[in-house]
């Protein structure tokens, strides 16, 4: 098992740092470039959703990202925020036939990860993203 965790403020520019951590972490595990890119993209969308929908673009809120690698080749990403509770039943992708900008983040996350699940925490939200890689 291997674990790394970072905590950062809810500034959009910090998404690049989170993506970089994901990229470096997965490249050390011999994950192929396309899977790394896809994982970065989905994490980007998840963090952007926290910044926009949970924190309403407030730049001084805390986000904690934890990456956990377990055998055989499973990545778990935990995204923790301390904003208002999210109703998981309302977190759905928009229909793809609705042609308009935005709104595809949840679709992308669900397409890339095997599991997208909100865990029960007393304060804020904890999103688990889980994926098994073919290495």
Automatic annotation (TrEMBL):
Keywords noted in UniProt: Kinase, Serine/threonine-protein kinase, Transferase
Entry-linked InterPro entries: Anti-sigma-factor_SerPK (IPR050267), HATPase_C_sf (IPR036890), HATPase_dom (IPR003594)
SUPFAM superfamilies, per the entry: ATPase domain of HSP90 chaperone/DNA topoisomerase II/histidine kinase (SSF55874)
Full protein name: Serine/threonine-protein kinase RsbW
Gene3D superfamilies assigned to the protein according to its UniProt record, in alphabetical order: Histidine kinase-like ATPase, C-terminal domain
Record flagged with keyword Glycosyltransferase: no
Molecular function terms, GO-annotated: protein serine/threonine kinase activity
CDD domains hit by this protein: HATPase_RsbW-like (cd16936)
Keyword Transferase (UniProt): yes
Cross-referenced Pfam families: HATPase_c_2
Organism lineage string: Bacteria, Thermotogati, Thermotogota, Thermotogae, Thermotogales
Histidine kinase/HSP90-like ATPase domain segment(s): 10-130
EC number annotated for this UniProt entry: 2.7.11.1
């Amino acid at each position: 098992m291997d674990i790394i965790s970072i905590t950062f403020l809810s500034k959009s520019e910090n998404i690049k740092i989170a993506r970089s951590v994901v990229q470096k972490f997965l490249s050390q595990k011999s994950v192929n470039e396309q899977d790394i890119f896809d994982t970065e993209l989905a994490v980007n969308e998840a963090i952007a959703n926290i910044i926009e929908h949970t924190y309403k673009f407030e730049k001084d809120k805390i986000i904690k990202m934890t990456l956990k690698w377990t055998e055989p080749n499973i990545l778990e990403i935990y995204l923790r925020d301390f904003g208002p509770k999210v109703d998981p039943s309302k977190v759905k992708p928009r229909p793809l036939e609705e042609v308009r900008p935005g709104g595809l983040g949840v679709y992308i996350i669900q397409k890339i990860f095997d599991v997208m699940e909100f865990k029960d925490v007393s304060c804020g939200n904890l999103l688990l993203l889980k994926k098994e890689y073919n290495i």
